[in-house]
Amino acid sequence: MVNYTDRQLDRTFAALVDGTRRAILARLEREDGASVSELAKPFAIKLPAVMKHLDVLCDAGLITRTKAGRTVTVRLRPEPMREAMDWLRRYERFWSKSLDRLAVFAESKESEARKKRR
Amino acid sequence: MTSVTLMRRIRARPSIVFEALTKPDGIAEWWGPDAGPVLLAETDVRIGGRFRVRFRMVDGTEHESSGEYLEIAEPKRLVMSWQWTSGGESDEGAEVSRIEIDLKPIDTGTEITLTHARLRTEVSRASHERGWAGALDKLVRHFAAEHAG
């Protein structure tokens, strides 16, 4: 439970530490894709700095970059976010699976008890 | 995420469900997040008594949790503290959370409601240690809401 997909989670969390990177991801959640220059526009930092942030996000698997001509389009890759979500939901999963089996077990005990009474 | 609440309807009377929740041979049948086996189950069902359960997951990792019975109203309610432990010792930095289980008799058997509460301290501690300062939680929640539909 504790070690659940630790390495990917560490990369996801490390990528998310930075406010600029979170802002980039938040924007990519709203829009289907954006060019690097569009992404850089709201920030008071230079394009190379934005590129470095994009490298980090790309290494963590949080975005994809596709080049068409001179334009690089950046898109969100949701899988690592889902994993982070899963991590936060690990208790929910733990109890959900456990209660499913508890139900099966208790129901078998119930039918045993009824047979005995007959 | 401060707590997780789940509800199930079980076709068995509350006394049977309560036994399955508290007897070691019952716990061995259902405890754990996947089909891996329970390796050890100990219970001392009285206020202040403790439980300890160790299980192996399908991926081979072993995990253990333990806690203390805080409220016992057989066969209606069970409250216990919860902590991940390893080798009988509390994991360093592991937080104590709380499990509340209510069993309500219904026509078809039992309605069980389980709440795992006070998870926030654990999550926020992890957040702090990793330097997310809670922002990850918000972002991920936002993400989930966007993609839930």
Order of helices and strands of chain B: EHHEEEEEEEHH
How much helix is in the residues of chain B?
A: 25-40%
Mean model confidence by pLDDT of chain A: 85
**Which structural category do the helix and sheet elements of chain B fall into?**
alpha+beta
**Which fold does the CATH topology of the largest domain in chain B refer to?**
Alpha-D-Glucose-1,6-Bisphosphate, Chain A, domain 4
Descriptive tags:
heterodimer, A: 118 residues, mainly alpha, Arc Repressor Mutant, subunit A, three-stranded antiparallel sheet, 3 strands, 67% helix, 12% strand, B: 149 residues, alpha+beta, Alpha-D-Glucose-1,6-Bisphosphate, Chain A, domain 4, eight-stranded antiparallel sheet, 42% strand
Write the layout of secondary structure elements.
The complex is a heterodimer of chains A (118) and B (149).
Chain A: H1 6-16, H2 19-30, E1 34-35, H3 36-40, H4 47-59, E2 63-68, E3 71-76, H5 79-88, H6 90-117
Antiparallel strand pairs in A: 1-3, 2-3
Chain B: E1 4-10, H1 14-22, H2 24-30, E2 38-43, E3 50-56, E4 62-73, E5 77-86, E6 89-90, E7 97-106, E8 109-117, H3 120-130, H4 135-148
Antiparallel strand pairs in B: 1-8, 2-3, 3-4, 4-5, 5-6, 5-7, 7-8
Helix pairs in contact in B: 1-2
How does this structure look, described?
- The complex is a heterodimer of chains A (118) and B (149).
- Chain A has 118 residues and is mostly helical.
- In chain A, 67% of the residues lie in helices and 12% in strands.
- Chain A has six helices and three strands, in the order H-H-E-H-H-E-E-H-H.
- A three-stranded antiparallel β-sheet of chain A has the order 1-3-2.
- In chain A, helix 1 (6-16) packs across helix 5 (79-88).
- Chain B is α+β, with helices and mostly antiparallel strands and 149 residues long.
- Chain B contains four helices and eight strands, in the order E-H-H-E-E-E-E-E-E-E-H-H.
- Chain B has helices at 14-22, 24-30, 120-130, 135-148; strands at residues 4-10, 38-43, 50-56, 62-73, 77-86, 89-90, 97-106, 109-117.
- In chain B, helix 1 (14-22) crosses helix 2 (24-30).
- Chain B starts with a strand and ends with a helix.
- The chains are: A mainly alpha (118), B alpha+beta (149).
